[in-house]
Amino acid sequence: GTGMGLLAAVRDRVAAVHRGSALPERLRLYDGWAARYEQDVAALEYRAPHLAAASLAFAFPAPRAEARLLDVACGTGLVARELHRRGFRCLHGVDGSAGMLERARSTGLYQELRLCVLGTEPLPTPAEHYDAVTVVGALGEGQVPSTVLPELLRVTKPGGFLCLTTRSNPSNLRYKAELEAALGQLERSGAWQKLLAQEVEYWERATTEEEESTRGTGYISGVVYIYQKCPVPHLEEG
């Protein structure tokens, strides 16, 4: 059926950007993918933006409208749409692809959008600037390195939240182990505390045979992590 044809085409586009080509080439592929990106991830039933925004909203204290959020590797704005639905209004985004940022700009959901290639340059943001920082879908093999965590922490206010996701499919397990080691190290050093690490079985449809979930469901699993930067402000006694 047409469904399988579409998935095969999507599979090729996903494989191209994940193939571990050199960074400039990969960003060029993202630029070219921008126009079809939302259609493709819909075909994959990609649930990470929804799951991440729901988790962050659950952890986040009210009110949300004034809170300043940074959407890192914002892509076309899928995460912004989900955050906006949950009452977050002050959204800034950064991405390494100008083509993706153009799409994000057209949503009208961001107050500010900046080009930034995470992992090779610092975030274009002062320290302790954001109430929350999200990195949804970009922490993975051949994408954003786990060495960016201190930079994410730098721009987060004390007591602010970080919402991160990664995939649990076989080809990303080495990266996931590295990421979790880095997350744990920062927790032990007192930089942040873990509020949530939620494994989600139906994260998105698998696009390759070796990515197939162990249970043969045709889906790969993923994780949402929520951390809170220390020191966490104490609630006033009242």
Automatic annotation (TrEMBL):
Which CDD domains does this UniProt record tie to the protein? AdoMet_MTases
Residues annotated as domain Methyltransferase type: 70-163
Q: Which molecular-function annotation in GO is an example for this chain?
A: S-adenosylmethionine-dependent methyltransferase activity
Q: Which InterPro entries match?
A: Methyltransf_11 (IPR013216), SAM-dependent_MTases_sf (IPR029063)
- Known PANTHER family for this protein? METHYLTRANSFERASE (PTHR43591), METHYLTRANSFERASE-LIKE PROTEIN 27 (PTHR43591:SF101)
Q: Give the protein's recorded name.
A: MET27 protein
Q: What is the lineage of its organism?
A: Eukaryota, Metazoa, Chordata, Craniata, Vertebrata
